[in-house]
Write a structure and sequence with these properties.
74% of the residues lie in helices and 1% in strands. By secondary structure, the chain is mostly helical. It has a two-stranded antiparallel ribbon. The two termini are 15 Å apart.
């Protein structure tokens, strides 16, 4: 029987919608509170007055702020993101190209981080107080205290500058401008393209994972320290179940609930890291797009990026509520409880 009622789902959807509206409002206001303006980035003193006026009217900058806000709220909720003056293309087509690249890098980082982190935390909590627990825990704290971009530069120095094993920029090998150098690329197949992407993603992926796994490990280790003394764990041991079965099926499953909550913070942390990591590795994704469009006061594109990322985080939070009921049967959202 389902433990999530339609009434509760409807309530969560309404709350999620208003959270998205709040994110959109903050993005609208914060961009306009920055020094400079969108109009200053578009027009120049050398332009004829008629040309400047046409640009201002095209983007609705001659309207009162409240009208701009209403138009923004309506258009962006219906997917009408407008035109990017920075890139000379529709904002939606720009996001369609950039978003999959970010999802590839940071989706993989999230998956690996939340496989490694809980697994390590499970064993550390089970081995609490041992030398293995203390040594791995200390190493994790050291990694957690390091900025991801600093680790990225160390990896670039070692694996690119010194050893020359891995590339340090772009998502794929770049086609040369000289046509005489295109011969190696003409023989490419789909599997060779995949290998090339994996070759390029290795350094940025490891840079994020080296820090990202620790948060999940810390939460899981703390929860395992709590549940290993629970009555149901002692009962499972008394039944003669193997240590592995008791640890995974009885202790770890109940310890996973706070880890699922922390995963939402992890998503925000990973997206936040996208800005710097994508810039360091010249990864053509949403993080680099945020930096570029904010610095150039490209309101249509910057607002669309914040909107898309905000929707992703809110949807992840909603899915986490649903995942709770499968991680712990004691939790029920039937009837809104």
């Amino acid at each position: 029987m389902a433990r999530i009622s339609l009434r509760y789902l409807a309530y969560r959807l309404v709350v999620s919608y208003f959270v998205i509206l709040g994110i959109m409002t903050l993005a609208f206001l914060l961009l306009r509170l920055m020094p400079g303006s969108f109009a200053d980035a578009l027009v120049s003193p050398d332009m004829p007055r008629e040309a400047r006026q046409a640009i201002v009217e095209q983007y609705g900058l001659n309207e009162p702020l409240w009208r701009q806000y209403l138009a923004f709220m309506v258009n962006y909720q219906t997917g009408q993101f407008g035109w990017s003056p920075t890139y000379g293309t529709e904002v939606w087509s720009l996001i369609e190209r950039r978003l999959p690249r970010t999802l590839v890098l940071f989706g993989a980082s999230f998956i690996f981080g939340y496989i490694i982190g809980p697994l390590v935390g499970m064993y550390l909590g089970w081995w609490r107080g041992t030398k293995r627990d203390k040594s791995v825990f200390a190493a994790g704290l050291v990694a957690y205290s390091m900025p991801a971009f600093w680790i990225a530069w160390l990896l670039i120095w070692l694996f690119n500058y010194e050893l020359g094993w891995l590339p340090s920029s772009y998502m794929m090998s770049q086609y040369p401008d000289d046509p005489s150098l295109l011969a190696p690329f003409e023989q490419w197949t789909w599997w060779r393209a995949i290998i090339d992407v994996l070759h390029h993603i290795a350094l940025p992926l490891f840079s994020i994972i080296s820090v990202g796994w620790v948060g999940a490990m810390l939460v899981m280790r703390t929860q395992m320290n709590t549940v290993v003394d629970s009555d149901y764990v002692y009962l499972a041991k008394a039944k003669g179940l193997s240590e592995r079965t008791v640890m995974i099926k009885h202790a770890a499953r109940n310890a996973l609930i706070p880890v699922a909550t922390q995963a939402i913070v992890g998503v925000a942390f990973i997206i936040d890291g996208a800005v710097i990591i994508e810039y360091v590795f010249s990864w053509p994704g949403m993080g680099a797009l945020i930096v570029d469009t904010v610095l150039r006061r490209d309101y249509p594109t910057a607002q669309a990026v914040f909107f898309i990322l905000g929707v992703l985080i809110v949807v992840m939070r909603l899915l986490t509520d649903i995942a709770y009921t499968y991680l712990d049967p004691r939790i029920s959202f039937e009837g809104g409880e």
